[in-house]
Design a protein that fits this description.
With about 300 residues, the chain is an alpha/beta fold. It has eleven helices and twelve strands. The strands form four sheets. Strands 4-3-5-12-6 form a five-stranded mixed β-sheet. Strand 3, helix 5 (about 115-125) and strand 4 form a beta-alpha-beta unit. About 25% of the residues are buried.
Length: about 300
């Protein structure tokens, strides 16, 4: 059974055909469609040419569908309903009644952002659940595949599959315990003289701007210990002579809790920028725009 090319199909004709097949009468179909009988008759002629089939034939005072017309009578209602659904405006997102789960992938050093974010969401959407997924080198790819609703990551060039907006920028600083001997005469020499702590997530993109900038000045950072998570860093720093150079956001809360001191980095380096990324194809859904706006609002509380 051949089908007419899609480029030749007028959707309005299919609407007329659907009503004709239901009413089996040009007059009654015209009444339902608020058209004249002549307009419906003209549409039926066009439909017959389009499908190369009579579709409806007269049987005394009534019209009955042909075999092809009967098949269309069974399939057209669902097809037109699907088209209507596709073209309809998306349902508005109601945070107050939503039970949606949102998944945000992010490095663990953004933990100071989370209380602000969860408080904002709980006040508007008590039924919403937020899952925080650990950042990994494959997050961008998994984001494209729909694994996450949003991704916080160091700013990088956008792709056709990902879109992003900058959340903010933070200065690089060095943390150490109170009365750390390096801080008595803070300088590049002292910065390089003491061992440093490295958190693996501190360079998630694989490039380390700290060491690149220091090497241009002839200094080398001596790594004394490596930790997998920022949550382990503060207690280690508070009890040793290790130093930690990170964006200021990374130790915002832990530094105060453990009595740590921070110093500006003793050499120039560009601020650390974070962006909020989303999937280019699905990210325009109302609920995802709502969620990202709250992530951005929470981050704004932490910008220096």
């Amino acid at each position: 059974m051949s089908a007419p090319p899609l480029s030749k199909i007028d959707l309005n004709l299919l609407v007329v055909l659907d009503v004709l097949l239901r009413e089996k009468s040009v007059g009654r179909a015209a009444g339902r469609l608020n058209l004249t009988s002549s307009a419906v008759s003209h549409a039926l002629k066009r439909l017959r040419r389009l499908f190369d089939n009579e579709l409806l034939v007269r049987d005394g005072r009534r019209m009955v569908p042909t075999a092809r017309g009967q098949i269309l009578a069974e399939t057209l209602p669902l097809l037109l309903a699907q088209v209507e659904h596709t073209l309809a405006e998306p349902e508005p997102f109601d945070p107050a009644t939503s039970t949606r789960k949102f998944c945000l992938a992010a490095p663990d050093f953004i933990s100071p952002l989370l209380p602000h974010l969860l408080k904002l969401i709980a006040s508007e959407a008590p039924g919403v659940n937020v899952e925080i997924a650990a950042f990994s080198p494959t997050c961008a790819l998994e984001m494209q595949q729909g694994r996450y609703d949003a991704l916080i990551a160091p700013s990088f060039k956008q792709t056709d599959d990902l879109r992003g907006v900058e959340l903010g920028s933070w200065q690089w600083v060095t943390f150490g315990r109170k009365d750390h001997p390096a801080f008595s005469n803070w300088s590049l020499e002292n910065w390089a003289a003491f061992p440093h702590l490295l958190v693996s997530a501190s360079s998630p993109t694989g490039r380390n701007p700290i060491d690149l900038a220091a090497s241009k000045l002839g200094a080398t950072r001596n790594i004394g210990a490596v930790l997998p998570q920022f949550s382990m860093a503060a207690p280690v720093l508070s009890a040793t002579d290790l130093l930690l150079t990170v964006p200021s956001i990374a130790m915002r809360d832990a530094a105060a809790a453990y009595g740590l001191v921070q110093r500006d980095l003793p050499f120039e380096i560009a601020p650390f920028k974070l962006s909020l990324f989303h999937n280019a194809t699905s990210g325009d859904e109302p609920e995802l725009r709502w969620f990202r706006s709250h992530v951005s609002n929470a981050a704004s509380n932490l910008i220096e």
